[in-house]
Amino acid sequence: MFKMITPMLAALVLASSSCPIAAQDLPLHASAHPTTSLDAAFHAWLTAINSGNRAEIQAFYRQHADDPNPLFALEQAEDSCGFEVDHFKAKTSTSMEVLLRQKCLPGLQRLKLAVANAGDSKLKTLDLRPMPLPDNGAIQATRLVADRLAQRGEFAGAIIVEREGKRLFAASWGEVRPGSGRAITLDTPMLLASSGKMFTAVSILQLVAAGKVELDAPIGRYLTEYPNAEMAKVTIRQLLNHRGGAGDIGILGRDEGANRARVRTLAEMIQLNGGRPPEFPPGSKTEYSNYGFILLGAVIERVSGMAYADYVQAHIFAPAGMAHSGFPDRDHLDEVPLGFTRYFGEQDAKVPNTDTLPWRGSAAGGGVASANDMALFFETLPTGKLLPPELLKLATMAGDTPWYGLGFVVNSGSEASWGHGGTAYGMDVAVHHYATIDTTFICLGANDMVCNRLIFAWFLRTFPPGDQDD
């Protein structure tokens, strides 16, 4: 339930191979009628995308790109309402680059197609991405996408964009319960899924700063009665960067309802999982782990002498002024928007996600916060009020795990960012700070994968393609 489906922002974008092509602009009619297999592929692609028909788009990608579920292309077909050719930038017998006008969004998208050999029908490159927009164009395009998703009942939630300490955009959509008349606002608490792992990381690092926990100490130093001796050797650092082999919790899956009904506390989660050893030698590889953060929560409780939720309230929410955040149990979610799920495409009909919710949020995620509160969290972190600057820097830079710091998803280079998404049945969260442009993007949603979609809409229209040559 709290598994992060796409830890890196670029994960949903089809990778493009480098293919040297001319930089000249070609006239619109340059490929008006298919004359080569590449022309035919382009026209077939455009016809499929403009049909808006999911099956036709999937059939094209299956035949020409060995991709039976092209999620990004399906979303772009919906968001853009289809494309018209603006102009061809370059074209040879084996490659083409074309700029496309979107029918219901501002700006252009760039399509690159290439085959290994002239006459091939299978594409070696199929790369579609929006081009950057000036000023606040990326925000306006994202709002248009959000508006249409909300109109179709596919988005209920909130978005905030802040740059250099100033709020550029803030809006909310939908109702806490459909038909209730209670609108979601920027202060409405929403389920966080795995984004809550940031609170666990900050809590552990606060105890490190206080000299009460050591990053490279085994958890057995603090959890002295831990059942499995091999798991007890895993270090705090290895749990923070998902290199401990701790695995999952056993209560978050759709088919784990029996465990979910009887397991409520961190101690009960350890009783359920404590007998097993690490799934691989700790430190030898990276594998995203929810149970690892349960163990970190247990360390927080043991060292601080406080319940996990109480510690986070006192040491993170209160100092940051996060008045609409907490860990309500399943019987006290009246103020939290009801999530709707299709179980990530396993069924066509949307249903409430209540049957898949654990009893309460935990150290692995699942608490609640409002969009305004998440903005306060990101605003407070750099001030030193929650963490010493050197520990925040350590947490938000890649280490042994290239896409993860210590409890924070990270990205390096010209698009450097840190934060943490959260994806679960009927909830989706994208909260990231982009250091190179000093901008924070916050999206909290009560639908499957919707904030991933919206942060992509903004991100791809904000940062130029890495291979852009003009």
UniProtKB/TrEMBL annotation:
Keywords from the named record: Signal
Keyword match Signal: yes
Pfam families in alphabetical order: Beta-lactamase
Signal peptide segment: 1-22
InterPro entries the UniProt entry points to: AmpC-like, Beta-lactam-related, Beta-lactam/transpept-like
PROSITE patterns, alphabetized: PROKAR_LIPOPROTEIN
Stretches assigned to the Beta-lactamase-related domain: 143-424
UniProt keyword Membrane, yes or no: no
Protein's name in the database: Beta-lactamase family protein
Organism expressing this protein natively: Sphingomonas ursincola
